[in-house]
């Protein structure tokens, strides 16, 4: 599951790099581990997510222990917003977990700083032969494998169907545009009124800005440089400013409160009918809201500009004393059917065809079944191969956009000035990464 990250700072990343260098020079980067009192290999594993995610993840870890009773695990988890700060601190101190969750945005950053162990030599332990090679390749940096994806996700739009039923509005067609999105959000706002809005404010969502600029034939990055045209960013900020002005999307204070997980989203809080969210995270709304929710294709004007990525990968700490055991852990978590029973579709359709087939035949709830069908639809009709991984420092760019978009929404900075600030800071961030 992905969230609304705001807390990964440049200081944290610099600490990460500096801490690694210092620990490498002194030879004291030590994963610890060792043995438990009863002689088992002590492992640490960490992830981000909601309480429901934790239950699913822990069920997977328990299944690993059944396969490998010589292993014992200490599990660590937190929400997505806090995860990267904590991981950077752990890496800097040389005490990162043996196995930890990683994602596409930070993969090149951590691999480039020698935080992650190359996994190619552990193909047998991880049973890579069971996995779709296209999934496996999502975890490669400069040809080397550093992460194994647990599933597939695609940017999506999640809509409250109960609100549509109440207002007698129909979901738009799959080939809708951003103009169509704005009109749809406005129709919801006008039909409900009061303190209710059509959509969340997506101006700080980099993955949706990427779709916006890809539709125009452009890209966010070109190698290690920002390639986003300034006019595209200005148009993006102006687009959302217009929606805020007409109350088609939520005001700055409501959007700013959306931190720490989907339970704080405007949709769950009853402030709006639409949020922008990766498809894998849609299943985390089960139990949080008793309305029927529907997944829609993100605006792309019918073009094949979307691509799937791994919302959560598993990586091994480069200085772990238990890499072989870590690889076996990853292989079991990704390909074992007993794990699949508990973990399900937490990260979207899994890389193992055997596991996918098993889950499709299992007793899925409404949101899980919808997410599988949605992934099939978008993959067949609207996706292209993924672009190159974001460069080192891309995690900072994600947070930079969120911060500037929020400042614009609160009126702290104008749109042109905000765009200028984005390009000045982003280029500096990437140059110093």
Give the domain tally: 2
Distance between the termini: 26 Å
**Averaged pLDDT:** 89
CATH fold category name of the largest domain = D-Maltodextrin-Binding Protein, domain 2
Low-pLDDT residue intervals, each spanning 5 or more residues: 1-31
CATH class of the largest domain: Alpha Beta
Question: What does the radius of gyration come to?
Answer: 21 Å
Percentage of residues in strands: 5-15%
| Extended strand count | 13
Query: Helical element count?
Result: 18
Detailed description of the structure:
By secondary structure, this protein is an alpha/beta fold. The chain has two domains: 172 residues, D-Maltodextrin-Binding Protein, domain 2; 191 residues, 3-Layer(aba) Sandwich (D-Maltodextrin-Binding Protein, domain 2), CATH 3.40.190.10. The strands form four sheets. Strands 2-1-3-13-6 form a five-stranded mixed β-sheet. Strands 8-11-7-12 form a four-stranded mixed β-sheet. α1 runs parallel beside α3 and α17 runs antiparallel to α18. The longest helix has 18 residues. The protein is globular. The two termini are 26 Å apart.
